[in-house]
């Protein structure tokens, strides 16, 4: 009998328990797609607090805004926080920056990519020309301009960005943590390479043989993944590439509620605090009928 | 709406499409219905060899209908290749010929602000962030700016925050600051006009005013003095053919028709 290989499927509570007060948490997905919303709602319920978050370059949206609006995140590294045409700037993010209630570090998408790459390569910094001349360099203390000894011209040095935990949402995984994205991978693979611990929620768990049948389809190898959580429809109200489209009505409703602290508190009560799991949440946003409406691929 | 009428967004997409050069390669950011429509239209009219990456979803040359989000999975229809975004930074973006960008403010040199209005530490208005502007502006490529609002407070003499470098402060200011020299902003399109840049001073110049608008009105809605050359003309309105292709083969869901009238 051969020894048994370790499986990585865990429940959502166990996965989220890896995040503790003061953790540095990276969030995957992009714009209005593939954000790990069910895990974020669980994190908000858990009231861990004092989190530093980094939203995907550049496409942070409700996942970042909810951690800020619920008071769980006190620091954000971000290049963008909005919902495209559905809400150009996320309201809690906007209000808390305007009221100096959170610490905000402005990066652009490339400087975040550089930070992740420096972490992956275990280098003290990654270099880029991006940002020269921009006020981003004046306001972000992490980014340093130096004279490159080869060209003798200015360059930007970006220190490593290494999150404690990355929360990602993808479409499929086997029990060992091999990930398949149904559509775009966005920055998930790089985030998984940079973070110390990687948790991926997936729409479905597939047999290991489906992975080995076509290993070219593996978008993040199991070597980078620490835990898999099966959460069907775990990215609602966002789209899960190739599985369902974004719930535009709900995203607009979120943006409307988030503009007013009182209405937002009611939103959190209804859709997060009073809900015990993602299934109950999905009932509240319209249940099977709504989910089938969104399944139009 | 009758067949010959068009919305400002349709006009902007059509005018931008005419500027795209056959054989060139580029990309747009998120929230970019107008640039996506422009690329699709250019490929179906004068530029069959135009290559474009569909924002961060990194799909090459999608041919399906226009969607609101440039990172929507449905954009994959007709795509020839897909990159991971991390790969795109390495070997797609450095080879671009053009990029589309916007902002909440733009100045006479085509520098753009997407980050904040007022004092940065206590802003009067907070924008979405820096997105990709600081990096894209360090590439020696053509930048097409599109602004959904042409008002004295969006077209300003001095930005509250310089997110993306355009022509910086003209002259040799770019070289002095160590910013790679290159083409930079070539065109600014808004719901009322098209602007380009004076070759000498690198300041914004009126190129054409849209039908129904006068040059005086364009200046009145601009927060700085526009260069007014002698040969300003009216923007050439969409042709029947351009509108037909745009509506029947690209914007099948009427996204540009439904966009906020400015």
Summarize the structure.
The complex is a heterodimer of chains A (297) and B (262). Chain A is an alpha/beta fold and 297 residues long.
Question: Can you give a write-up of this model?
Answer:
The complex is a heterodimer of chains A (297) and B (262). By secondary structure, chain A is of the alpha/beta class. Chain A has 2 domains: 12-108 and 162-294, 3-Layer(aba) Sandwich (Glutaconate Coenzyme A-transferase), CATH 3.40.1080; 124-158, no CATH class. Chain A contains 12 helices and 11 strands. In chain A, α3 links the parallel β2 and β3 (73-78). In chain A, α3 (62-69) packs across α4. The mean pLDDT of chain A is 96. Chain B has 262 residues and is α/β, with parallel strands linked by helices. Chain B has one domain (8-258): Glutaconate Coenzyme A-transferase, CATH 3.40.1080.10. In chain B, α2 (33-44) packs across α7. Chain B is globular, with a radius of gyration of 18 Å. Chain B starts with 7 loop residues before the first helix and ends with a helix. The relative contact order of chain B is 0.17. The model of chain B has no long low-confidence stretch (mean pLDDT 93). At the A-B interface, α4, α5 and α6 of A face α3, β7 and α4 of B.
Report the sheet-strand fraction of chain B.
15-25%
For CATH, the homologous superfamily of the largest domain in chain A is named as: Glutaconate Coenzyme A-transferase
Assembly classification:
heterodimer
Number of helices of chain B: 8
Q: What CATH architecture label of the largest domain in chain A applies?
A: 3-Layer(aba) Sandwich
The number of helices of chain A is: 12
The CATH superfamily label of chain B reads: Glutaconate Coenzyme A-transferase
Number of strands of chain A: 11
Helicity level of chain B, as a percent range? 10-25%
- Order the strands across the largest sheet of chain B as they lie in space: 2-1-3-8-9-10-11-12
Which fold does the CATH topology of chain B refer to? Glutaconate Coenzyme A-transferase
Query: Structural class of the helix and strand makeup of chain B?
Result: alpha/beta
Q: End-to-end span of chain B in angstroms?
A: 17 Å
Rg calculated over all Cα atoms of chain A = 19 Å
Low-confidence stretches of chain B at least 5 residues in length (pLDDT < 50)? none
Reported for the largest beta sheet of chain A, the result is: 8 strands, mixed
Report the top-level CATH class of the largest domain in chain A.
Answer: Alpha Beta
Helix/strand order of chain A, N-terminal first: HEHEHEHEHEHEEEEHEHEHHHH
CATH class division of chain B: Alpha Beta
Largest sheet of chain B: 8 strands, mixed
